[in-house]
Specification:
The chain has about 240 residues and is an alpha/beta fold. Helices cover about 40% and strands about 20% of the residues. The longest helix is centred in the C-terminal third of the chain and has 17 residues, at about 160-175.
């Protein structure tokens, strides 16, 4: 695990786990990656990015490597053999550490969730910031686990009336049936355009807070715009 340069980065005194989840597949993976980049770039902190989207894994596109998978961690077939060392050795190590999925769809029905919860809890203990990239189906075992154990849930959505209305319905379901408080949720408005409702109208309508707006840009500018916006979001979240 690489440590950040303490002479140029802001020290942090918090530990936090953050799940990126979107019921609409509105760029949650890109947002999770950009958030990890922003945290590792500007803060003297250890950061891990964890892929928990079993149904649509995509980290191989962004982090091509034959290592970094949960199957390497879970080769220790007894729960008492899973150690911090073999977890760390399974990561793709760099500016921030990456844990890739490597599960198949069939594995979804065979995963020992007690073991997975132990592994994810150990990962959150190892790092200052842990970011979970989840699947849009909140009843998926891994997504449900990530949403439950995370300190913060960031929900990327497009600012259409339909998506706002549906997210409000999801939040009502969570409030009525889940074991965690919806107060840890926040919306991230993605692909915002001038013809969308105003910031004020969006925030009046949503049943959760809004932590930022990612403006819609030409393809060549998306990465640069997202990077700057996530630096602002990370700074706001860290300083809360």
């Amino acid at each position: 695990m690489l440590k950040n340069n303490k002479t140029t980065k802001t020290k942090v005194v918090i530990k936090q786990s953050i799940a990126f989840w979107s019921p609409f597949s509105d760029g949650s993976t890109n947002c999770a990656i950009e958030y990890a980049k922003a945290l590792s770039k500007h803060y003297d902190a250890t950061v891990a990015l964890v892929e928990l989207d079993m149904l649509h894994p995509s980290f191989d596109i962004y982090f091509p490597s034959s290592t970094g998978g949960f199957k390497e961690i879970l080769r220790a077939d007894r729960i008492d053999r899973i150690t911090f060392e073999n977890i760390r050795n399974a990561a793709i190590q760099g500016e921030f550490d990456v844990y890739k999925n490597y599960f198949s769809y069939v594995d979804l029905f065979n995963i020992d969730m007690v073991v997975m919860e132990k592994v994810l809890t150990m990962i959150t203990a190892m790092y200052d910031f842990v970011i979970f990239d989840t699947n849009r189906n909140f009843d998926n075992k891994l997504t449900d686990l990530a949403l439950r154990i995370s300190d913060r849930i960031i929900i990327p959505i497009k600012p259409s009336p339909l998506e706002i209305d549906l997210l409000n319905k999801y939040l009502e379901i969570f409030e009525d049936h889940q074991e965690w408080s919806i107060l840890k949720c926040a919306a991230l408005i993605n692909q915002y355009q001038p013809d969308h409702p105003t910031f004020l109208d969006i925030e009046k309508t949503l049943k959760t807070s809004v932590i930022g707006y990612i403006k819609h840009e030409k393809q060549s500018s998306i990465s640069k715009v997202m990077s700057k916006e996530f630096e602002k979001i990370a700074d706001k979240e860290v300083r809360k």
